[in-house]
């Protein structure tokens, strides 16, 4: 007879506060094949696991049920524990009596009754468990980093330093991301480009790193250790290996109508362009939608002036396929488009700008060479108003509910930039709260007030009105004094919310990575596994996982790299043993199962079968490739004869659970 | 045990896929969003693992309502699983309708791992709906009565 | 029977029907209010007093009678709170009291003779029982 051990966890008061754990243990003890049942405060702890091990020995248990928190927390822990005393790790089932019981109920009687039912369902299932053995799959020792901003660059550098090959795919013509657009970074006021460009150069020159710029990921298939990725290298219309980066073509291009993305629309660029001077690679790109040659067939000046004969109007996109063991998402962010904020003057006056636009204006390499001027007049502003939380902490449809984290700090930074260079310019920052956690952050913000004379007013801006002459009037509250303010600045800066890059969702679908309703990638566990996606082999780095500043981005990038290195360092990965299996003597070879398999894991082979009647027969039957099978179970339901079943979730197991619960 | 008191507590079985809806259910727990105790969850790797026969078995054994939760179409961890679920369950709903089973004792909902609050809302909604429909009499197999 | 400060506030909250707990005291509503600089309690202050259960000070405030019901505050609020609803709730609470007319019939003498009839009717509806 089977000997089932049932272990009911208190989880401190998380379960025991609402569920009578002793009663649960007592209820299951009555079941004939439950040889041992007990309850304990922290089943996952060393002492808890020792209890399990001792019980296995004392009662010769052959299978285990743990009633505890979600299997997503500790299934692996209890499986290891079982293995350590000679029980196959797949002879363990978890009843979730915390997240799905004690935490969602108030009444003790109800919660205890539910916990008992769930325990009985797990016991019913475990009766049909059979030992399963994980297979081995190899690990391709190459990593893919999607996104070439500071997060992607740092992750790639760390992986490369550990000796592994890594490819960075970046959709812009250059790596560098948002940090390349910044002037200085808080709290040190380091020049952003000065700390970024050495890393960009390292990434470009590292023997283990390959850059795919102006490229996008087109298709991903496979699984952890064995991803097959197709990368589309978009046509630059310039031969990268012949181009010297002299930039003559960009100077001579007659088309000047396209707003520069890098300069946030404050200046126009040519149709052939290099985003910024320190671009890596320093190879221009032709924007075919703006190029006269592509649109009308006329021009061709760039090709004529190019000293290296590098222009190639016939260049096509190129598709590259590569295999990777791990993928890191580092797709970064953009600012919330502010078209719904016309009440703050956005789109109404050119002198109402976003925070990133201000960075470009103060940046010495920017559209005005670092001179702070009003975009409408080209004149220096006499006073500037900075508005916090534009689109952040906003529960209406036009904003994001979260706090964007970086704006309080960069507002102080912007205020200090301006006051440093233009001591006669009046700067007022309107805020709801000032959020400055972090080393040296509060001190940094206080310098703006105490040393630089920036006016910090607690109260928000209600509206920015633009009159017929283009003059701005700002209506704001000064809540500390209870006053209603009217200001007449020359420049208004909106600290817009951050949001993930627009193609985040498309990539999430491609990788089957979890994404939340704000398009941030979801981590496997918010506290303990912040850099891993629940999808094995996919890792997260930087803003794409949640708002964060540069120090946190670099930390997280290193963490993601460490996880990747841990994966690539393995010789083999244990594959999921919960794969499909074919009961050959009832398989008719109808071939329905292969049609529904997403992984192409099912093939067919002729075999000698001993039928249920006892005769020998040559039949074509399904064969499951256990390395490819990911265990979804689609084939099991498609199979008309139930020949296909799924290990770990067999028909008998699930039906037993259904019977126990009803 | 058949109910001895007059307050009818519907029995509801929820099939949840490991990657999205089960995680969403955990999310509801983490956020302490309550839903009725009579809803009990069975974990499956993907919603496409759920055979219509499991659902009918649940009804035969006395379930008053069955709800199947999976990832939003397009977000299936196994890429295509939930598309098959969608097609199969459309047929099942059609069949239940043909059998004259009282409206919507079976429901399919897509809940993502980030939608903890929504999971609780879906469950509360379904529980109220099933309570209003009353006991499942039509599909009950009395030979299974304990 | 006199209501306590808190009970009065609860009554006003019930009439207002807006979730004042969502307010983060940002002050956008007050800034957007066209008559905010003429109010003793700006819209964000009115919401604050209601959140903290200060029914009496809400009733004593002059602000609800300055309010134009333009709804700029509700429209600008990033949290979905309606200070306009709070203003209206306070007005209703006052008006519903016996003989608490804020617009006495006698005051008509002081109004210009060519004042539109409709404005008078609207004012009476708004300010008296």
Walkthrough of the structure:
The complex is a heterotrimer of chains A (662), B (146) and C (129). With 662 residues, chain A is of the alpha/beta class. Chain A folds into five domains: 4-126, Rossmann fold (3-Layer(aba) Sandwich); 142-226 and 319-332 and 502-568, FAD/NAD(P)-binding domain (3-Layer(bba) Sandwich); 248-305, no CATH class; 335-499, FAD/NAD(P)-binding domain (3-Layer(bba) Sandwich), CATH 3.50.50.60; 580-646, Alpha-Beta Plaits (2-Layer Sandwich), CATH 3.30.70.3270. In chain A, the strands form twelve sheets. In chain A, strands 10-7-6-18-29 form a five-stranded parallel sheet. A five-stranded parallel sheet of chain A has the order 20-27-21-22-23. Chain A has a four-stranded parallel sheet with strand order 2-1-3-4, sandwiched between helices. The model of chain A has no long low-confidence stretch (mean pLDDT 95). Chain B has one domain (28-135). Chain B contains four helices and four strands, in the order βαβαβαβα. In chain B, helix 1 packs across helix 4. Chain B is globular. By secondary structure, chain C is an all-alpha fold. Chain C folds into two domains: 5-97, Fumarate Reductase Iron-sulfur Protein, Chain B, domain 2; 103-129, no CATH class.
Structure at a glance:
The complex is a heterotrimer of chains A (662), B (146) and C (129). By secondary structure, chain A is an alpha/beta fold. Helix content of chain A is 27%, strand content 25%.
List keywords for this structure.
heterotrimer; A: 662 residues; alpha/beta; Rossmann fold; FAD/NAD(P)-binding domain; 5 domains; five-stranded parallel sheet; 17 helices; 27% helix; globular; B: 146 residues; four-stranded parallel sheet; 4 helices; 38% helix; disordered N terminus
Shape field of chain A: globular
Q: Evaluate the radius of gyration of chain A.
A: 31 Å
Helix-and-strand structural type of chain C = mainly alpha
CATH class of the largest domain in chain C, please? Mainly Alpha
Q: Regions of chain A with pLDDT < 50 over 5+ consecutive residues?
A: none
CATH class of the largest domain in chain A: Alpha Beta
The main β sheet of chain C shows up as: none
Supply the CATH superfamily name of the largest domain in chain A.
FAD/NAD(P)-binding domain
Task: Tell me the CATH architecture of the largest domain in chain C.
Answer: Orthogonal Bundle
How would a textbook summarize the main sheet of chain A?
5 strands, parallel
Which H/E pattern describes the elements of chain C? HHHHHHHH
């Amino acid at each position: 007879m089977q000997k089932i051990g049932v272990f009911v966890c208190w989880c401190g008061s998380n379960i025991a506060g609402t569920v009578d754990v002793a009663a649960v243990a007592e209820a299951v003890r009555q079941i004939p094949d439950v040889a041992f049942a007990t309850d304990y405060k922290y089943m996952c702890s060393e002492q808890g696991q020792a209890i399990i091990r001792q019980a296995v020995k004392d009662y010769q248990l052959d299978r285990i049920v743990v009633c505890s928190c979600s299997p997503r927390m500790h299934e692996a822990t209890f499986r290891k524990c079982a293995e350590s005393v000679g029980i196959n790790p797949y002879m363990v089932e978890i009843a979730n009596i915390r997240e799905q019981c004690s935490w969602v109920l108030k009444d003790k009687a109800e919660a205890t009754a539910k916990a008992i039912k769930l325990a009985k369902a797990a016991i019913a299932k475990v009766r049909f468990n059979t030992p399963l053995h994980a297979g081995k799959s190899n690990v391709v020792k190459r990593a893919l980093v999607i996104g070439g901003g500071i997060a992607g660059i740092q992750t790639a550098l760390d992986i490369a330093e550990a000796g592994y090959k890594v490819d960075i795919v970046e959709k812009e013509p250059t790596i560098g991301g948002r940090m390349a657009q910044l002037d200085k970074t808080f709290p040190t006021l380091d020049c952003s480009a000065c700390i970024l460009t050495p890393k960009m150069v390292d990434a470009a020159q590292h023997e283990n790193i390959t850059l795919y710029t102006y490229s996008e990921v087109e298709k991903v298939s496979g699984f952890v250790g064995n991803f097959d990725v197709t990368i589309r290298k978009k046509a630059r219309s310039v031969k990268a290996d012949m181009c010297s980066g002299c930039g003559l073509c960009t100077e001579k291009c007659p088309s000047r109508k396209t707003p520069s993305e890098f300069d946030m629309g404050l200046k126009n660029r040519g149709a052939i362009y290099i985003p910024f001077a320190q671009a890596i690679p320093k190879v221009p790109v032709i924007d075919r939608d703006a190029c006269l040659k592509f649109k009308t067939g006329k021009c061709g000046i760039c090709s004529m002036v190019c000293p290296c004969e590098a222009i190639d109007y016939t260049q096509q996109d190129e598709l590259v396929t590569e295999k990777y063991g791990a993928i890191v998402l580092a797709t970064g962010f953009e600012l919330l488009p502010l078209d719904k904020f016309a009440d703050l003057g956005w789109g109404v006056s050119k002198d109402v700008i976003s925070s990133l636009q201000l960075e470009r204006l103060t940046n010495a390499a920017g559209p005005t060479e670092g001179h702070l001027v009003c975009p409408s007049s080209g004149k220096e502003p006499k006073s500037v108003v900075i508005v916090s939380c534009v689109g952040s902490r906003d529960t209406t449809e036009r904003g994001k509910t979260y706090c964007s984290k970086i704006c309080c700090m960069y507002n102080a930074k912007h205020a200090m930039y301006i006051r440093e260079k233009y001591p006669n310019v009046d700067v007022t920052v309107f805020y709801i709260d000032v959020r400055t956690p972090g080393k040296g952050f509060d001190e940094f913000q206080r310098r703006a007030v105490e040393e630089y004379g920036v006016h910090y007013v607690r109260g928000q801006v209600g509206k920015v009105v633009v009159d017929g002459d283009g003059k701005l009037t700002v209506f704001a509250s000064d809540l500390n004094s209870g006053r209603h303010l009217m200001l007449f600045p020359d420049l208004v800066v909106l600290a817009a919310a951050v949001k993930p890059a627009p193609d985040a969702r498309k990539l999430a679908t491609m990788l089957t990575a979890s994404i939340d309703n704000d398009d941030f990638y979801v981590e496997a566990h918010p506290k303990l596994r912040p850099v891993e996606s629940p999808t094995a082999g996919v890792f997260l780095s930087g803003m794409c996982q949640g708002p964060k500043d540069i120090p946190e981005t670099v930390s997280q990038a290193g963490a993601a790299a460490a996880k990747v290195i841990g994966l690539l360092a393995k010789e083999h990965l244990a594959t999921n043993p919960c794969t499909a299996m074919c009961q050959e003597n009832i398989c008719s070879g109808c071939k329905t199962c292969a049609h529904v398999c997403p992984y192409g894991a099912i093939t067919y082979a002729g075999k000698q079968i001993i039928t249920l009647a006892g005769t020998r027969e040559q039949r074509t039957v399904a064969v499951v490739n256990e390395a490819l099978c990911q265990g979804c179970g689609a084939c099991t339901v498609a199979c008309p004869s139930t020949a296909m079943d799924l290990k770990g979730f067999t028909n008998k197991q699930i039906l037993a659970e259904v019977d126990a619960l009803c | 045990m058949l109910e001895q008191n007059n307050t009818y507590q519907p029995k509801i079985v929820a099939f949840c896929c490991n990657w999205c809806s089960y995680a969403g259910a955990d999310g509801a727990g983490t956020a302490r969003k309550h839903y009725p105790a009579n809803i009990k969850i069975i974990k499956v790797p993907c919603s496409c693992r759920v055979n219509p026969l499991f659902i009918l078995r649940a009804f035969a054994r006395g379930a008053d309502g069955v709800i199947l939760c999976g990832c939003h179409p397009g977000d299936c961890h196994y890429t295509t699983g939930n598309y098959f679920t969608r097609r199969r369950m459309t047929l099942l709903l059609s069949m239940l309708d043909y059998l004259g089973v009282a409206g919507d004792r079976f429901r399919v909902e897509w809940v993502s791992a980030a939608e903890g609050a929504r999971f609780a809302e879906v469950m509360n909604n379904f529980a109220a709906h099933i309570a209003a429909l009353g006991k499942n009499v039509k599909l009950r197999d009395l030979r299974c009565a304990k | 029977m006199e209501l306590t400060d808190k009970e009065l506030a609860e009554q006003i909250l019930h009439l207002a029907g807006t979730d004042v707990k969502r307010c983060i005291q940002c002050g956008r509503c007050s800034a957007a209010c066209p008559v905010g600089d003429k109010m003793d309690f700006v819209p964000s202050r009115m919401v604050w007093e209601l959140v903290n259960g200060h029914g009496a000070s809400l009733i004593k405030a002059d602000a609800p009678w300055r309010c134009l019901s333009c709804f700029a505050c509700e429209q600008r609020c990033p949290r979905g709170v309606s200070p306009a609803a709070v203003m209206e709730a306070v007005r209703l609470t006052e008006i519903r009291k016996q003989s608490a007319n804020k617009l006495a019939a006698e005051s008509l003498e002081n109004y210009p003779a060519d004042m539109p009839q409709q404005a008078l009717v609207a004012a009476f509806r708004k300010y008296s029982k």
